[in-house]
Amino acid sequence: MLTISRTLALPESELVERFLRADGPGGQHVNRTESAVELRFDVARSPTLPEPLRERLLARRDRRLSDDGVLVIQARRFRDQGRNREDARERLVEVIRAAQVVPKKRVATKPTRASKERRLAGKQQRGKLKQLRTKKPGLE
């Protein structure tokens, strides 16, 4: 079980781990061991996730989310497989916890009179500046 919060935990059966060779330091040993971890979690078809959370996860613009709703996290920060595995799981927990926060609805407000006047004054000032840049006839 991967615990996300007090009310949500993902069963191991929903997580798919694949081990691959990592690049980076390690000498000849790195060419023989598969220390990098690719963790896959199917957000779209997970029976554990509540529907509002699933919608927020799928709506995020995350490059790690594939077109068919699978979240793919690659961990190759460390030299050994166990630490990379833990790193991938921690990052998955962070992504899901971030999606648990319900964004506040934006309340539409009208601009104040002072802000309208400041905007118009700025426009007039820029217009005057541009007017100064134009060539005046007869001054050539």
Automatic annotation (TrEMBL):
Matching InterPro entries: Pep_chain_release_fac_I
Superkingdom to which the source organism belongs: Bacteria
Enzyme Commission designation: 3.1.1.29
Keyword Transmembrane: no
Ranges where the record places region Disordered: 104-140
Sorted UniProt keywords: Hydrolase
Span of domain Prokaryotic-type class I peptide chain release factors: 21-37
Pfam families xrefs: RF-1
UniProt biased composition (Basic residues): 125-140
GO molecular function: peptidyl-tRNA hydrolase activity
UniProt protein name: Alternative ribosome rescue aminoacyl-tRNA hydrolase ArfB
Organism encoding this protein: Rhodanobacter geophilus
Gene behind the chain: arfB
